[in-house]
Write a structure and sequence with these properties.
With 149 residues, this protein is of the alpha+beta class. It has a domain of 100 residues: Alpha-D-Glucose-1,6-Bisphosphate, Chain A, domain 4, CATH 3.30.530.20. Helices cover 31% and strands 26% of the residues. It is built from four helices and five strands, in the order H-E-H-H-E-E-E-E-H. Strands 1-5-4-3-2 form a five-stranded antiparallel beta sheet. A hairpin with a 3-residue loop joins strand 2 and strand 3.
């Protein structure tokens, strides 16, 4: 019995077959488990001095959605998106194509002399809040339209 206890102490001290103080290693060809990243969710809200139709026209643009998504996932180039929900002038939802898991929801609601805008991003880059603030700034910026005859 004493031999069994001694064997247990030795194996515990050296990590079941390694050097003393060394951590056990996974079998050959097996990667150690990666830590799971926390699900990052960010929401920004602001009332903009634009009508819901004006904001909808800006938001419901695939090129803009792809650029916004790139900012949220930390990519340099535009990221393809799929529209997953659309209620004209009220709600727009889209996700990164290819199953990356990043989703954006934009909600519009008429409020006094403007439109309340709420943007929520799920499974985004940790700096998503700052990116969403830039999206709101872009939506709030005055449109420069040339005069037409």
């Amino acid at each position: 019995m004493a031999d069994l206890i001694q064997l247990f102490r030795v194996n515990s001290a050296i990590g079941w077959g390694g050097e003393a103080g060394e951590r056990p290693r996974p079998a050959a060809g097996v990667a150690p488990p990666r830590p799971k990243l926390a699900c990052v969710e960010a929401t920004v809200r602001r009332t903009l001095v634009k009508s819901a139709p004006e904001l909808w026209e800006l938001a419901d643009d695939i090129g803009r959605m792809e650029a916004w998504m790139a900012g949220l996932v930390g990519a340099q180039d535009r990221v393809s998106v799929e529209v997953t929900g659309r209620e004209p002038q009220r709600r727009l939802e889209f996700a990164a194509a290819g199953g990356a898991g990043t989703r954006i929801a934009i909600e519009l609601a008429e409020r006094g002399l403007g439109t309340a805008v709420s943007i929520t991003a799920r499974n985004a880059h940790p700096a998503a809040g700052a990116t969403l603030e830039r999206v709101l700034d872009e939506l709030a910026a005055p449109e420069r339209r040339p005069f037409t005859r």
